[in-house]
Design a protein that fits this description.
Domain ELP1 three-helical bundle: 989-1157
Structural class: alpha+beta
GO biological process, one term: tRNA wobble base 5-methoxycarbonylmethyl-2-thiouridinylation
Distance between the termini: 103 Å
Helix content: 25-40%
Region (Disordered): 1063-1093
Number of strands: 49
GO molecular function: tRNA binding
Shape: elongated
Strand content: 15-25%
Protein name: Elongator complex protein 1
Largest sheet: 4 strands, antiparallel
């Protein structure tokens, strides 16, 4: 549904060359035109009118000076930097463009009627006056000569026509003196055309026996392949479509004039009629453009009036869906000098047409494909697309219907062919259009109603050639842009007048702004943004485009930049990317329906497809939801299968505030149920349909809680307020769709509808559609309503023998025991024990067994009073369970609370809860001897747990053994507490016997420990420096070999040792690779081997860092202060001073070594340092220091430990 729009036209009028033009050729390299006249060859630039070269053909007598000579063909040969010219007298002339020399490379005495080069310019075919074809190479070496008219259909033998005889052979320079035969009748002259790939050529000639014209197809070796069928009225024009599918010619019928097409086998294959009478025009030439999309037909009047010259026409035809459209009609009038002499398409630019008139006026037309669509953005615009087809405008209104071409909604008939169409840009009047016809008049067409149109014609034709036109916002005003740069305005019914804005540039376009109502020229040279675009359209805030990679992009212009556009076109689409979708190969955009979601695409074969691009759909949905148009949004989402959660997720607060409006707009029970059944906890605005301009915080839920529960509760509340009878099924759905389905409430509502059996029946049937019947049966049983249970059971597939005996048995039971039986059957054990507790003491044993089986002790205890016997029994059972679960202290508390003191004491003792045990023992009370024995047992357990102070307390206060208490404190290094008890109980003898010796032993042990830790710290520190140096060297060696971009560069880090491990200890890497990780034990074992301190292990540096961290932590937490005070008290100053000095020196050593071991390079991230301030050396260094992701325990080793610097442990009285 595209039209040909004229982009620009170049006109050269001041050309004054000798003779009259007979044929021309286009030099694709320079864009210049080579013209051959009966006197000379001229090369000129059609844009600048500059003459590059000119050489005479009469100076060396190739053509007569009287102007009677004829040039039958001219061809540019870029590879040879020459021009080949064939004359009617039989000469083949080569003109060298570098030396400007003419050379006759051959001559045929019978004369030449045509010359055609193959598309690859490797072969040249000549047609002679004796009806033969001569094929030669590009060096003009003859290959063969055959007769044009042959009796065989194809694959005929070569025919010898006397090659070598004087009248037919090439003579070289002798040809200049040869006899020049008369030219044959031009209408009977043969025509040659090559296929685009150069494998075949076709020749159209008149059969001398029958006088009928036939087309013969020859291959590249000049072997006849096929002969066309007999076609009455077949005419001379012949052109093979470059794509190779069809051969075009013309045929004159008794009642019409047609362009016909033939296949390679010579059979007819389609045609179309020319818009002229049977004897009105003659077709001089048919010309396909280089990409086979446009067929140019060059015609002139066959029978002009008296004292008149024939009119000349050029028509451009295109095909779509097997229909031929007349897109452009160019009329050149009847003036002799304006008559066309030469026409050809540009070989490089498919839509550039070159014309040359007999008066030496050159025209160059640049066409472009365009889709003429209306530009409205409101609901009044019908999404019109106008297709030019000769004197008709085929109009399709895509808002109402999608009609595949060549059909249409409206066919607007005009008196003359149309060349240009534009739609009005005024709001609410965008369905009106203006058309420029081939005679220069402008027609404005108005849409009266759904089936009627009217038009208004300008009185005065436009004086000049129109490049483009558009409607203004004023009534009846059309703006025109002429090829000379002028901008004119036309008031319908008045004359044409110039606009204030004028220009002299070519190729500019005029458009009206919707706000300022003035013309604007745009001639800015903009950079190319993308080169793979096949079509595009701007709609609202979106740029929609299709690419040659068969993708359709929909990009938001408000956030789009050039870099963003290039990035979007070059990158692959993500799964949830709404801006891009795949389309059929070769699809092009036709139109977008305003305020809708439809995008119309046309396929290469011409048919139409309607798609709903997700970006357009979501943008329109967001507009509807913002405008509270829930019905439009819902219907669109339902039709296009958009997740209905978007209605809520788009703006939860607004939705919850307008639920009543939502229900009234939807007004369909089925639609509301559909909405409820699609609800899920996912936020679709962040997962399925992310909005590029939407912030992450704007899609939060309207209230706290789960989304599905919030919506169900809000909708149910509103529906129950509006009309609970009408929305009965929706209310049931809201119960069922909650996160925890409220099936019992739903069944209860069904039960309440029993008065109306039809409604209850429908409601139950609907519930069975939503919920599994077995699940619903069990929940109905949980309501304890046997009538409801029978209703559900009857709707299920259950056999009555399965449920009736069970129901009958239940009916015979006492109500509480009945409910207990139902709850136990449904495995609702908490409710079961609740009902069973009401059945009396005779069922308590059954309750106790159920509590033990299901471990519902806490729930059961709540059912009985604290002083009841059942409560005590349950507490004992609970305590036994807690003891089994290794929670003896809690068991003791339960037993103590319910009066089981002996068993509580046993529980407290088993878990060493000494305070509770002694309290219970005192509460019993135990005799003093047994209490002392209990205290000694507890003290022994506390000593085993290294809880010396607590053991001393038990021995002192309950066992009454102060000596053992002091001994426990000395053993636990609680020097100050031991001294307190020594003087409290007047046992100073223990100072000499036990305390001083213990102090000296503690000093000796602390000193030895400090020395060993210091030696180990220094050894690990030195080894770590060696390991880091070795790894740095290994990294540099491999980095120099492979560079920073090698695949293993990221492994060469301070913390990893894959590379160094392979150099230092390959056996570890091999053994570690065989470690199985099938169990946690094996994983721990593998982790232990990984952090081995053995020299040469692959992760030795990590192991050393862990060991150093452990040493620092242990030394920093040593309790030296209390020992120093005790040593000073008993006058061991020397020992105290040495211990204080050694401990201080070790702490100082560690504090100093911290920044040396944990350097900044070890702790920095693994991202390479790049940026504008980086240098080559810094980037190389950052690559060398990269680290891969390391485990958590390894990350902790890379962080320096913190020492307790603020702790005061020194004694100032010591030196």
């Amino acid at each position: 549904m595209r039209n040909l729009s004229l982009l620009q036209r170049f006109k050269c009028v001041d050309l004054s060359f000798p003779g009259s033009p007979q044929c021309f050729s286009i030099r694709s390299e320079t864009g210049t035109v080579l013209v051959a006249s009966e006197l000379a060859i001229t090369e000129f630039d059609p844009r600048t009118q500059e003459v590059h070269k000119e050489v005479s053909l009469t100076a060396e007598e190739y053509l007569p000076e009287d102007g009677s000579g004829v040039v039958v063909a001219i061809q540019d040969l870029p590879d040879q930097e020459s021009v080949c010219v064939a004359t009617g007298s039989g000469d083949v002339i080569l003109y060298n463009l570098n030396t400007s020399q003419l050379e006759c490379v051959g001559s045929v005495e019978s004369g030449l009627t045509g010359m055609t080069w193959s598309p690859d310019q490797e072969l040249v075919t000549l047609t002679t006056g004796q009806e033969t074809i001569i094929m030669m190479t590009k060096d003009f070496e003859p290959i063969t000569e055959v007769a044009i008219n042959q009796d065989d259909f194809g694959e005929g033998k070569f025919i010898t026509v006397g090659w070598g005889k004087k009248e037919t052979q090439f003579h070289g320079s002798e040809g200049k003196q040869a006899h020049r035969s008369a030219l044959p009748n031009q209408l009977a002259a043969p025509r040659i055309t090559w296929r685009g790939d150069g494998q075949f050529f076709a020749v159209s000639t008149v059969c001398p026996q029958t006088g009928a014209r036939k087309v013969r197809i020859w291959n590249r070796e000049c072997v006849l392949q096929a002969t066309s069928e007999v076609v009455n009225g077949l005419e001379q024009p012949l052109c093979w479509r470059p794509s190779g599918s069809l051969i075009a010619s013309t045929q004159r019928h008794p009642n019409k004039h047609s362009v016909v097409f033939m296949e390679k086998n010579g059979l007819l294959h389609g045609d179309f009629n020319l818009p002229f009478g049977k004897e009105q025009v003659k077709v001089k030439e048919l010309l396909w453009n280089s990409d086979s999309t446009v067929l140019a037909v060059w015609m002139e009047d066959l029978k002009p009036g008296e004292n008149e010259h024939p009119n000349t026409y050029i028509q451009l035809w295109t095909v779509g869906n097997y229909h031929w459209y007349l897109k452009q009609s160019l009329h050149f009038g009847s003036e002799p000098l304006r008559a066309l002499a030469c026409v050809c398409w540009d070989p490089e630019k498919p839509l550039r047409l070159h014309l040359l008139t007999r008066g030496w006026v050159s025209y160059t037309y640049d066409w472009g494909w365009s889709t003429d669509r209306s530009h409205g953005t409101d609901y009044h615009d019908n999404a019109n697309v106008a297709v030019i087809d000769g004197d008709k405008i085929l109009l399709t209104t895509f808002r109402q219907c999608v009609i595949p071409p060549p059909m249409c909604a409206f066919e607007l008939q005009l008196p003359v062919p149309v060349n240009l169409v534009t739609f009005r840009s005024q709001a609410q009047r965008t369905n009106e259009l203006a058309a420029l016809t081939a005679d220069g008049h402008i027609y404005c067409l108005f849409f009266l109603n759904s089936w009627c149109w009217s038009f208004l014609r300008s009185d005065v034709p436009v004086d000049g050639f129109v490049i483009s036109l558009c409607h203004s916002l004023g009534n009846g005003t059309v703006a025109l842009q002429l090829d000379d740069g002028q901008i004119r305005k036309v008031h319908m019914g008045q004359s044409v007048s110039p606009l204030i804005i004028t220009g002299t540039g070519f190729g500019f376009y005029v458009c009206f702004s919707a706000k300022i109502q003035a013309g604007m020229l745009t001639g800015v040279s903009l950079p190319q943004v993308a080169s793979n675009i096949s079509s595009f359209v701007v709609y609202d805030d979106f740029l929609l485009l299709t690419t040659h990679s068969h993708m359709c992009h929909c990009l938001n212009l408000s956030t789009l930049s050039i870099k963003g556009l290039q990035s979007a076109l070059s990158s692959d689409a993500h799964q949830n990317d709404e801006t891009v979708r795949k389309v059929e190969r070769g699809s092009r955009i036709v139109s977008v329906v305003p305020q809708d979601t439809r995008l119309i695409l046309q396929m290469p074969r011409g048919n139409l497809e309607t798609i709903h691009h997700q970006a357009l759909v979501l943008a329109q949905l967001r507009k509807w939801l913002d405008g509270l148009r829930f019905k439009d949004a819902f219907e669109c989402m339902r039709k296009l299968r958009i997740n209905l959660n978007l209605i809520y997720d788009h703006n939860p607060t607004v939705f919850l505030a307008n639920i009543e409006m939502f229900l009234k707009q939807i007004d369909s029970i089925n639609y509301i149920n559909l909405f409820l059944t699609e609800l899920k906890e996912e936020d679709t605005t962040t997962t399925m349909y992310p909005c590029p301009s939407r912030s992450a915080s704007s899609s939060v839920s309207g209230k706290g809680g789960k989304k599905v529960d919030i919506i169900c509760d809000a909708l149910r509340s509103t529906m129950e307020t509006l009309d609970p009878q009408k929305y009965c099924l929706c209310i049931l759905t809201s119960h069922v769709r909650k996160t925890t389905p409220e099936l019992e409430l739903a069944l209860q509502k069904v039960h309440e509808l029993r008065g109306d059996s039809v409604s209850a029946e429908e409601a139950l049937k609907y519930l069975l559609f939503l919920v599994n019947v077995n699940e619903l049966y069990e929940h109905s049983l949980g309501t304890y309503d046997f009538d409801l249970v029978l209703m559900v059971a009857e709707k299920s597939q259950k056999d009555p023998k399965e449920y009736l005996p069970f129901l009958n048995m239940l009916k015979t039971l006492e109500p509480n025991y009945q409910r207990y039986t139902i709850d136990k059957h449904l495995k609702r054990y908490r409710k079961a024990i609740h009902h069973l507790s009401k059945c009396g003491e005779e069922h308590f044993t059954e309750l106790l067994n159920l509590v033990k089986d299901q471990r519902l002790y806490s729930d059961a205890l709540e059912l009985y009073s604290l002083n009841s016997e059942q409560y005590k029994t349950l507490s004992v059972a609970y305590a036994e369970h807690l003891v089994e679960q290794q929670q003896a202290e809690q068991a003791g508390l339960l037993l103590w609370r319910c009066g089981e003191n002996a068993r509580a004491l046993q529980a407290f003792v088993s878990c060493t809860s000494w305070r509770n045990a002694l309290a219970v023992a005192t509460h019993i009370p135990l005799p003093p001897e047994q209490l002392a024995l209990l205290a000694r047992d507890l003290a022994e357990k506390l000593l085993e747990a290294r809880r010396h102070k607590q053991a001393a307390l038990c021995l002192e206060q309950y066992a009454k053994d102060c000596e053992e208490a002091i001994s426990a404190l000395i053993q636990g290094a609680a020097w100050e507490e031991a001294l307190r008890l020594i003087y409290l109980y007047n046992r100073q003898d223990i100072i000499e016997t036990d305390l001083k010796s213990a102090l000296l032993d503690a000093h000796s042990n602390q000193t030895s420990f400090l020395e060993s830790q210091k030696a180990l710290f220094i050894r690990h520190k030195n080894r770590l420096a060696v390991v880091q140096e070795l790894k740095a060297k290994a990294r540099l060696e491999l980095f120099d070999e492979d560079g920073p971009d090698c695949a293993d560069a990221e492994l060469y880090s301070e913390a990893s040792s894959v590379l160094t491990g392979s150099h230092l200890g390959s056996k570890y890497s091999r053994s570690n690779s065989r470690i199985s990780s099938r169990s946690s034990k094996n994983r721990r074992k593998a982790e232990g081997k990984k952090h081995s301190l053995k020299e040469g292990s692959p992760f030795e540096d990590i192991a050393l860092l862990n060991a150093l961290t452990q040493i620092i932590t242990i030394v920093d937490k040593m309790r030296v202060h209390s020992l120093l005070k005790a040593l000073v008290l008993f006058q061991f100053d020397g020992a105290a001073s040495s211990l204080q000095r050694d401990y201080g020196e070790l702490l100082q050593l560690m504090e100093t070594a911290l920044p040396e071991i944990w350097t900044d390079n070890l702790q920095q991230g693994q991202t390479p340092l790049t940026g504008p301030n980086s240098t080559a050396n810094s980037i190389m260094a950052s690559f060398q220091q990269q680290r891969p992701a390391v485990p958590q325990q390894d990350t902790e080793a890379l962080t320096a430990p913190k020492m307790r610097i603020a702790v005061k442990w020194k004694l100032s009285i010591l030196k």
